[in-house]
Structure formats: C-alpha cells, structure tokens
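Example 5.3 — Aldehyde dehydrogenase
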Amino acid sequence: MAFHGQLFIGGEWTAGSGGTTFETVDPATGEILGTAVEATEADVDAAVEAAGRAFTDPAWRTMTPAARGRLLWRIADLVEENAAELGELESKDQGQAVGFARGSMGGAAEMLRYYAGWCTKITGTVSPVSVPGMLHYTRREPIGVCALITPWNFPLAIAVWKLAPALATGNTVILKPAEQTPLTTTRLVELCAEAGVPGGVVNLLTGGPDVGRRLVEHEGVHKVSFTGSTEVGREIVRDSADTLKRVSLELGGKAPSIVMKDADIDAAVTGNLLGGLVNSGQACAAYSRFYVDSSRVDEFTEKLAGAMSGMTVGPGTSPDTQLGPLVSAEHLQKVESYVERGREQGAEVVVGGRRPGGDLASGFFFEPTLFRGVDHSMQIAQDEIFGPVLPVISYDDPSDLVARANDTPYGLVASVWTSDVAQGHRLAADIRAGEVFVNTLPALDPAAPWGGFKASGWGREMAADAIDAYTETKGVWVNIGQ
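Solution (predicted structure tokens):
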C-alpha cells in the first residue's frame, strides 16, 4: 500500500489547510513510494499554537519527572518492537542498507532510554551568595516550543537525538523532517501517540524549505534545533535573529583522516573504507579526505582500491548490498559533478567514477570512487561532497599535518591512525574538530556529546550537553533574614 502521509497537530491527524501534496521516491528505483502533505503557513501557525497550549497544559506541565521517564521508555519499547518495519521504511525512503537501518533503530531506542533516565536527574544548585540573609538557588526549566528540523541522511535516528532530550526536559516539539524522507518520522510520531504522549506535545509538519523557514521565523517558537548543511544553518541564524530564539546547529563536515607512517595499514584501510562510505558517504562525519605518509601511500591506495572495487552496490532492501543509492537524482548529479571537477583539476580516478548501468540504471546509484594524486587545494579535498568519493593526499612532512587538517571551514570530525598512542593524543589535541577518533571508526553513544567547531555548528547534542541545550537556568532569591 502506498504511503499517504498527513500532518499531526494537537493530537490529531489532518490533511492540512492547503490541499497540496508532494511525492517521496524510492532512490533505488526512482519509483514513487507515496505522498505527504505540504504544510501551509496556516498549518505552521496551528502547530505552534497547539504546542504552546500543550506546554502550559497541566497534563504535560505538571507531569512528574518519573512519569516523563516512563513515557520515554514506552516510546523506546515501541521503536524496538517495530524496528524491522522502521528499518524497511528507512531503507526504501532513504536508500540505506536494510541491516544498517534496522541497527540504527536499536540505537534510537537506547537514546530514548538514556534520556528517560535523565528525567529524574535534572537538578539545580544552591549558590553560596554573599548577600546577607539571602538564599539563592537555581532551577532548570524547559525552554518552550521547540522546532526540530531534521535531515534526509539519518531521518529517524537524528529525530530521536533531538526529540528525546526535548521531551525529557519538559518541552513541546514540532518535528519537521526533510521532504525527501518523511516516512520514518511520520511513523515515529504515530508511536509517540500510541505511547500516550499528550496531544500537542509532539506535532508533525511535512514539506519543503518554506515550512522550516516559517518555523524558524515564528514568534511562538522558542528554540530551533537543526541538522543539515552549513549554508542552511547560516540562513537559520539570520532568520531567527529578530525573535532571538535559542538555536542549536549540527552542520557539515569534511573529516580529515591522517594515516601516519607507523600506522597499521590494514586497519587503516578497513577503518577508512567503512568510515568513508558509511551510508554511501552521505554522513557529515564520514572520513572524506585521507592524508597518507608518502612512504605508505601506494600500499594504502592499492589496498583501499581493491576493497572498494569488491563492494556490492545495490538497493538498500537487498541483504547483500554494501553500498546503497544516493538519496535523490539532484544529489546524484551533484556528486557526479564533483568527480568531473576532480578529473579536470588533475586527480586520477583509481576505481569507480561513474554511474553503474544494467539493473541499477533507473536508481540514483554511484560507484564507490577513489582518487589519488589529489592536491590539498582541490575542490574534492575541500568541499563536502556527501557521497562515496574518497580523495587520497600524500604528505612528506608530518609537521604540516595539523595545519592541513584544520585548513577547511569545517570542524566536525577527524581521524588519526598511528601505532604511537602519545602521537595520537597530541594530534587529537591540536586538530580543531568536535570529535577525533584514534584508530577507530566514527562512533556514537548517548553518553558522549556530539557536535562541531567552526562552520560545523553551534552547541552539542547527546549526553548532558543536550539537557543544557533544552533548558533555561532560573535563579531564585529568597529573603530568609539574618
């Protein structure tokens, strides 16, 4: 049965006020999976109003921390119980390998449980003020109505990263998924309602960039949490300025992976293959520019090329697929254009570099592509490609590595491969990135903060940092006399 999505406002499913829909497409085939509602300005107003009412409603406002924790745990149970269905939806709508997508549903359930535990542990402090006769203490209070705007690369997982701490701290939310991938977020909202979330606490608006822009500009929205491109992040900062709302941004990346002369090359090849091609390279944390010691670069490149040439490209729903399609025809054209620019600027394609034909010709597929002879200044080494394109850059002088690793606008993730643990620590300290992985793949855990430096964003998600991101600190002064 084809998907026919609706908006969810104030605890009710609705076709919206405009009567306009858009299509969501299977990137493996180009076939239409279904339609979703294009929310109007009136729909945005209605969702904001519903979230505002719910924020002050005693059913939510006075819910005990323990009850909120049980509610989040119930949502986690439902996500886990429906992991197979959610994984298949994610695979069809986004293109992820279905096994990977199902695994991410387990991670989403654990994220919800982590913040369920936080509900009873959000505390204030008693301050040792020097004003005679005064007691001063602080309270951590929810911000209010939060617009959670999510990307198309990990639709459900990133929605949960934002939703779980927002609800744990007592806020109300409006989820706005990317227009390319609305399926799993819609299902997540259904599960929230099934779990017993009061009406208006979780709302859903679908549609294109205009819907997100209206939320950002809306006076009734008190916080925006956005994951996506740096360009759109800058627009959000500008658009939110008039209302001075709180803003969290997790933006783009161009992660350097440094392979030192003493590195275990086989481990570095495996780690960079998996770290660079996760979700077909459609990840802001993907290892996307490799700096390899000149004495090891040929060995590294040959082994990496061999591993890449043996990968199975195919639909995400196929159990044998290692590399699924890109999310859309538009994005496929963007990735292809970067490969052509790499050739034009003098880099050599070792493997890949084209769209596969045959049974895959109707989908948005691109072969895993490896470049060598890449100069640090080339566009494929500087720009976020967001696809399965890996440039290898040779270096002779290790003293230049930190400067080169830091020489992009981004600072989300970096990777270091070395047998010298002390050297790994030194590089991790000097590289300007929010996350540095030494001799390992990119990893996530609810207890570890996530976010970037420079143009990779503002603030942190996960861990205790997300509690800070969704609360305000209030100071209370009480005259208790001498």
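Remark. Residues 3-251+455-477 form a domain with the Aldehyde Dehydrogenase; Chain A, domain 1 fold (CATH 3.40.605.10).
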